[in-house]
Design goal:
It is built from 19 helices and no strands. It is an all-alpha fold. About 3% of the residues have low confidence.
Length: 401
C-alpha cells in the first residue's frame, strides 16, 4: 500500500524571491504607466482618452490570457510561464521605447497585458498554492508585502528615470531590470514544479480526478466569481476618483492629496496584521470579516458626508480592507472550490474581472453629478459590496471541501 506523498516544506527563500519579482513587475509596468502617459502623449500627439485606451487594452489582454495561463500552470508549466512572461515583458518594454504612433502604442500594451497575466499575483498565488498546500495562505500574504510596496518604490524611481533619461531611455532601463533580474529569477527558483497527479487534499479523496470543467459549474465557484468580480469593480472604481471624492467629503486640499497617497502603506499594514495575528482567529471567520471593511468604509462616507472625520475613517477602513482583500480573493478558490485546479479556475475569472476593472471607474464617473457629487455611485458600490460579502458567505457554506 502506497503511503501518501509528503507535503513539501515551506520555502521562505523561494517565496521571498518570488516577492521580488512581484515588486518589480507591478512597479515597472502597472504603476509606471501613469508616469509615462504624459510624455508619451506629447511625443505621439495623443489625447488623454487615446493614451488611456492603451492601459484598458492591456487590462483586457491580461484578462483574456488568464485562462490559458492558468491551464498551463495547472499542467506543471509554471517555470516556463513566469520566465517566458518576464522575457516577453522585457521585449515589449524595449518595443515600447521605439513606438512612433498610436497603433504601435496599443499593440505594445496588448503584449504587456498578456505578459502581466503570466507574471502578476494570479499565477504567483497559484504556484505557491500548488507547492505549499499547507502553507499557501502564509505564502500569499508574504507575496503581497512587497507587491504592496511597488508603487512606493517604483513611482519615484520611474519619475527620476523619465526626468533624467527621457521616457524612451527610461524604458530601456526597465526592460533591462526584467531581463537581468526577473527572467533568471523565475528560471532559477521555479525548478521542480509538482506534477498535478501528485497533489491531494488533506484527509479526503484527491479531487484532481475531477476536471476543471466540473468545478466551473459548481455552486461554490459561481459564488466566488460573484464575490471576486463585484469587489474588483468596487475597488477599481474608487482610486481614479479618490481625490475628487475626498475633496467633496470635507477634507482640506492638502489632506485630499496626502491621504490617498498613504493608502498603499495602510494596505501593507493591514496585511502585516493578518500575517501576525490571523492564527488567533478562525480562518473562515476572518475571510468573512475582511471584505466587510469595504462596505463599512462606504457607509461611513455616506453617513458622514461633508465631515473630515468620516472621510478619514473611510480611507482607513478601505485601505486596510483592500489590502487584506487581496489575500482573501487569492485564496478563496483554493479554500472553497479546488486546490488542484486553482490556476485554471482563477484564470476563468480573469476576463470578467478585467471587464469589471475597466468599466467600474467609468460608471462611477457617469453617476457623478454637480448637485449630489458621488452619492449615487457610492450607494451603488455599497450595494455591490454587500452582495459580494453575502456571496462569499454562501460559497463557504456550499464549499466543495
Amino acid at each position: 500500500m502506497n503511503s501518501p506523498p509528503e507535503r513539501p516544506a515551506y520555502d521562505r527563500r523561494m517565496v521571498g524571491w518570488l516577492s521580488v519579482g512581484q515588486l518589480i513587475t507591478w512597479g515597472s509596468v502597472f504603476y509606471a504607466f501613469a508616469l509615462l502617459m504624459e510624455p508619451v502623449e506629447q511625443s505621439l500627439a495623443l489625447t488623454r482618452a487615446e493614451s488611456s485606451l492603451a492601459f484598458s487594452l492591456g487590462l483586457l489582454a491580461e484578462g483574456v490570457m488568464a485562462w490559458p495561463v492558468g491551464r498551463w500552470i495547472d499542467r506543471g508549466h509554471e517555470r516556463a510561464v513566469m520566465t517566458g512572461g518576464s522575457l516577453v515583458m522585457a521585449g515589449a518594454l524595449l518595443a515600447h521605447s521605439v513606438v512612433q504612433d498610436a497603433a504601435g502604442f496599443y499593440a505594445v500594451w496588448i503584449v504587456l497585458g498578456a505578459a502581466l497575466a503570466a507574471t502578476l499575483y494570479t499565477p504567483a498565488f497559484a504556484i505557491v498554492t500548488r507547492r505549499f498546500p499547507s502553507d499557501f495562505r502564509r505564502a500569499i500574504i508574504t507575496l503581497t508585502f512587497l507587491g504592496g510596496l511597488a508603487s512606493t518604490v517604483f513611482i519615484p524611481l520611474v519619475a527620476w528615470l523619465v526626468n533624467a533619461l527621457g521616457w524612451r531611455h527610461a524604458l530601456w532601463v526597465l526592460a533591462a531590470i526584467h531581463l537581468c533580474i526577473c527572467v533568471p529569477l523565475h528560471a532559477t527558483i521555479l525548478l521542480g514544479a509538482p506534477r498535478p497527479q501528485a497533489r491531494h487534499e488533506a484527509g479526503a479523496a484527491p479531487t484532481a480526478q475531477r476536471s476543471a470543467s466540473h468545478f466551473l459549474r459548481s455552486k461554490p465557484f459561481l459564488l466566488i466569481g460573484v464575490f471576486s468580480v463585484l469587489l474588483m469593480a468596487v475597488t477599481a472604481a474608487l482610486p481614479p476618483h479618490m481625490v475628487s471624492l475626498l475633496r467633496g467629503s470635507g477634507l482640506p486640499e492638502a489632506w485630499a492629496i496626502a491621504v490617498p497617497a498613504s493608502i498603499g502603506i495602510v494596505q501593507v499594514f493591514g496585511r502585516a496584521l493578518l500575517y501576525f495575528f490571523e492564527h488567533r482567529f478562525d480562518l473562515h471567520l476572518a475571510n468573512r470579516l475582511i471584505p466587510c471593511l469595504i462596505p463599512l468604509g462606504l457607509m461611513a462616507l455616506l453617513a458622514g458626508s461633508g465631515h473630515a472625520g468620516a472621510a478619514l475613517l473611510f480611507v482607513a477602513l478601505y485601505g486596510m480592507g483592500n489590502g487584506m482583500l487581496t489575500i482573501v480573493k487569492g485564496t478563496a478558490i483554493a479554500q472553497y472550490v479546488s486546490r488542484e485546479h486553482v490556476a485554471t479556475l482563477n484564470g476563468a475569472l480573469g476576463l470578467p474581472m478585467a471587464i469589471a476593472r475597466a468599466l467600474a471607474p467609468l460608471m462611477l464617473g457617469v453617476l457623478w453629478s454637480p448637485a449630489n457629487g458621488y452619492a449615487a455611485g457610492l450607494w451603488m458600490l455599497l450595494v455591490a459590496s454587500v452582495v459580494a460579502v453575502l456571496a462569499l458567505v454562501a460559497a463557504q457554506r456550499a464549499r466543495t471541501h
